[in-house]
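As described in the Methods, two query proteins were run sequentially through the folding procedure within a single session, without resetting any intermediate state between them. The first query and its resulting structure tokens are shown here.
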Amino acid sequence: MKPHSAIAAIVVRIDNDKRCLFTEVLASYDERVTNRSSSTRRREAMPGGVAATRRAVRRTGGFVGIGVACGLWLFGAIAGAIVSGPLGGALSFMFMVIALPVMPLLGMPATGGGSRLYMAMAISAVLWWFIGQVVAARVSRRPVVGWKEWLREFSILGLGLWIGAAGGLIIGALALGAF
């Protein structure tokens, strides 16, 4: 008789499967590892390792995309405050359009308003989150992935979005007769 057989007498029925409450605690490490089914085995990832970094990129890629857009907007606001005059205003507006690419679609340069700005912020945040998640899914297919690869892919996809937003501004300026 094993020393823990008295404790092993406490049995719970779950899904027609007999399981002992204390057997896993009292069993040796080898018994615990080999007796687990493959569905209950967790993947223990080394913190900062390849698998952990891939998982972090996949989980937080969209939120980092929103963070990049907020950083660009903040950079534009600081640059507009440092550089005075029309050049500072144009620089600040350019970075705001890069951070909020939906602004030209809502007619923001010609017409303003708080509700349009909040709508542009919300739609742009969803857009940046989506692009960040798409980039994370594309990058995480590679065997070794990190934030450097994510940023490279994000810059490529973001560049297309930024060119489209700038094109919208140029078309709007042409339509209004600015050039």
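Immediately afterward, the second query was submitted; its sequence and tokens are:
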Amino acid sequence: MTTQATIVDQQQAYPPSTVVIDRPTDDLFAFVAACQQLRRRGQEEHNAQLTQATRQLTDQLTATGRRVSAAALQQAAGWRVADQRRHQADQQLAGMHPPSRLLREADQHNDTVLYRRREQALALLLCDQAGSYADLAPQVLADRERACRQQAVLVDDQEQLNRQLARLRGLLGLLAQRRVRQLNTELRELDRQLDQVQSEIVHQQALLDAIQAADTNRQAWLAEHQDTLTVGAAAVVVLTRRLLALANPPGCPTPVSEVDLDHPMGRDPLAPPATNGNAPLVPVPDDTGASTAAAPIVAAGSVEAPGQG
């Protein structure tokens, strides 16, 4: 099985492999550490989204004079983040541009069937196997480039000190000996700094490798379920068209250009998402790599969608 690298970098990458145990022994520790750091970064990003959602809800409720407990506010923030993830997944599905054949087929079904198909596709996009850290690659590449530039500067300084040291060899005298000792001290410090910078470069390369491995796994997972995703994409496109048609009747003074498939009529931000008891939970990775439930996903047929057919 061959894989195609998604990250271009000047330095030689680790051997591409989706199986961790097959990696060279001397690289295994760096790779595992990089995977752990990526999970921590993912958790930090999720926490930042929760903080932002909490702040937005606080401002919104304060403006309307509503007061709620901190626990209720935190729970509502989790629901908002889950809704945002589902909305982003809807955009990914719509961006797949399903073929016209599937669009015509989807248009023959009522909303309940289309929402069920959408849920099947969303479940694939929001599961752990579809997770990706590709958005972190530009920052990692920038950090690595900075470390490489720092390494080049240190190597240049080291060469200059070595040239000075070579000129002093064979010279006698107290001043010459003192200068030699000083140069040796400076060289040891440069060696220490070089070791740190080179370790940083190795770590950044391991991060790139971990990002690439996760993206390769994601692409393989999505390719395996391409049919379900394409059918779900057609359902999202058709549902969006129907809701936009309802939101923009003839003579509408303020056209609506975007709709929320989960809540086309809006909802109270403090009200829990409607579920039928079978809705899966949005997984949120913790620092150990395990997944915890952040908020329930709206189940098919439970959203406020107008009936068709």
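The chain has seven helices and two strands. We note this only descriptively and draw no conclusion about the first query from it.
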